[in-house]
Amino acid sequence: MFHELLIKDIRATTGFIERNFNLIKRYIGWEIVFMVYTIVNAVTIGLIGVTSGDPNKVVYLIIGALLWGFLSIIFHEVAESISWERWEGTIEFTFMAPARRITYLLGMSTYAVIYALIRSAIVLFFLSLFFEIKLTNINIPIAVLVVVVSSFSFIGMGLIAAVFPLLSPEKGSQATHIFQAIILLISGVYYPISVLPGWMQKLAIISPATYTLRAVRAAILDGKGLNELSGDIIILIILGIILIPIGLIIFSMGERYAKKVGKLNRNG
Amino acid sequence: MKTYAVLVDDVYKSFKSKSKKKKKKKKRLFLELFKQAQDRFYAVNGISFNIHYGEIFGILGQNGSGKSTLIRMISTLLTIEKGQIKVFGFDVKKDDHKVRQYINRVTVEASFFKKLSTTENLLYAASIYGLRRADAKKKIPEILGVLNLDITRLDEPLENFSRGMQQKVAIARAVLTSPSLLLLDEPTTGLDPKSKREVQKFILSICETHNTTVIITTHDMEEADKICDRIAIIDSGKFIKIDTPEGLKNAIRKNSEDVTLEDVFFKMTGKEFKSDELEDN
Ligand SMILES: Nc1ncnc2c1ncn2[C@@H]1O[C@H](COP(=O)(O)OP(=O)(O)OP(=O)(O)O)[C@@H](O)[C@H]1O
Ligand SMILES: [Mg+2]
């Protein structure tokens, strides 16, 4: 019985993932456009670093571009899953299927991580064509660990943001974009947060990206290890543990509200 | 106690009124604003009925009379404001997850991923209903074949299909998951007469072979007459009458004149069926 349910959950999860990759295939033109934009953006930012004459500055900026690319895609894909479904007009169909909502969200999140990884790998490849980087004292395993751990926080934030399109078909998607922009501003993606106005620095403390960027840079530029970075990693784990359940709770509250006032209808 | 496939007991659903007059008031006074917030109209206004296992139950009503709202409540897409709905003994409110395993729905708007192909859309549907992929792959051409859909075009994006073809795919998608309760919200609207007959025949055949229970809304009186075991006439969120097609006709028949369901509808609601008052009320 339990076994049977698990199999159905796995079928549904892979179904959601497969569906999204099928969509990519069918919208391949747009994928290429966004990919080119992302690559050019990352290269441009790296080149700004070159003007400083400091090789470390180049790496500093490239790490920002790559990480922001990775984390913001995760956030964006999870947050926009509902908008997408609304736009296609499939939201009611998906929501009345027996697949549980947590399975749906798990499928969307897994897809988001795989998709973000693929895109980041492509960007990394193109960056390597432009910049010759020699790093001696570098701690790759720790950098990877930090990125993995922070994925969870971004999934959690994506889940929280996904509720906006559930509540308001038009304004919801706009809200998620603003949310994303604010995280970019406050998390020190391309500059240390110390250059921000004081009150914004306080906001930076609650953004998981702040810790991700700080820790990854320390691991790659200064070769810092688990000992020195355990503080940031623990904070990221805690943020993930807090944000994912909050995301799930808010999402299910949003869904209940939408079903109460009739917002699931595609024109509603 | 007799169990029904579907039991609907004194169900209500209201939405916020959106009348223009009230919007003006909004600017005037906070109190008015508060009052307006309370101003609701009932799309479903106290409906009760039971459906037997394997029955085809039709709902006839004008645009905006509350048919889709009722069907959405049965499909767990809208919460029930007051009253109770049970599907195969499961409470739609409390056991929504259970209910979803037994139902599927076809709507007027064929809700697909338009760029994905028929196969991709149907395999997606199969996966979220927990079906085995191999089983689904086998069933898809079978079902579409019965519906007379060109199965050489299954890998084309669905947006290339005509509305009628898309509607057939929507019906196939619902049937693919072998629902025990099939909710059909205007399944044949937009189909040509031949396709209409094919779909009607198909509905009748799956009811016969799988003992599927069906709720169907339609604007086609002939269709209702032909396939429904019983028909409910709905007006402004209320059921005015539930009976067999014959029973409905007999009720207004004088002497032995020929009456159609259209006559029945007109007599009972005082409205022409194809009214032009399509506006939200
Ligand atoms: N989500 C919603 N929010 C606000 N009002 C709604 C919502 N859904 C339905 N209504 C209103 O409820 C009433 C009944 O709508 P419903 O869609 O149930 O009618 P219907 O009988 O299916 O009509 P049609 O034949 O046009 O499909 C309409 O006045 C409609 O505007
Ligand atoms: Mg309707």
Structure description:
The complex is a heterodimer of chains A (268) and B (281). Chain A has 268 residues and is an all-alpha fold. Chain A is built from 11 helices and no strands. Chain A has helices spanning 2-26, 28-51, 55-79, 81-88, 91-95, 101-130, 140-167, 171-186, 198-204, 208-221, 226-261. The mean pLDDT of chain A is 92. Chain B has 281 residues and is α/β, with parallel strands linked by helices. In chain B, the strands form 2 sheets. A 6-stranded mixed beta sheet of chain B has the order 6-7-8-3-9-10, sandwiched between helices. In chain B, strands 2-1-4-5 form a 4-stranded antiparallel beta sheet. In chain B, strand 4 and strand 5 form a beta hairpin. The longest helix of chain B is centred in the C-terminal third of the chain and has 18 residues, at 193-210. Mean pLDDT of chain B is 87; it is low at 22-26 and 275-281. Classes of the chains: A mainly alpha (268), B alpha/beta (281). The interface between A and B is large, with 36 and 36 residues. Bound molecules: adenosine-5'-triphosphate and magnesium ion. Adenosine-5'-triphosphate sits between chains B (15, 43, 61, 63-69, 280-281) and A (262, 265, 268).
Summarize the model shown.
Chain A is 81% helix and 0% strand. With 268 residues, chain A is mainly α. The two termini of chain A are 38 Å apart.
Topology:
The complex is a heterodimer of chains A (268) and B (281).
Chain A: H1 2-26, H2 28-51, H3 55-79, H4 81-88, H5 91-95, H6 101-130, H7 140-167, H8 171-186, H9 198-204, H10 208-221, H11 226-261
Chain B: E1 6-16, H1 20-28, H2 30-38, E2 40-51, E3 56-61, H3 67-74, E4 82-87, E5 90-91, H4 96-102, E6 103-106, H5 118-128, H6 133-146, H7 163-176, E7 181-185, H8 193-210, E8 213-218, H9 221-227, E9 230-235, E10 238-243, H10 245-252, H11 261-269
Parallel strand pairs in B: 3-8, 3-9, 6-7, 7-8
Antiparallel strand pairs in B: 1-2, 1-4, 4-5, 9-10
Helix pairs in contact in B: 1-2, 5-6, 5-7, 6-7, 10-11
The structure holds adenosine-5'-triphosphate (ATP) and magnesium ion.
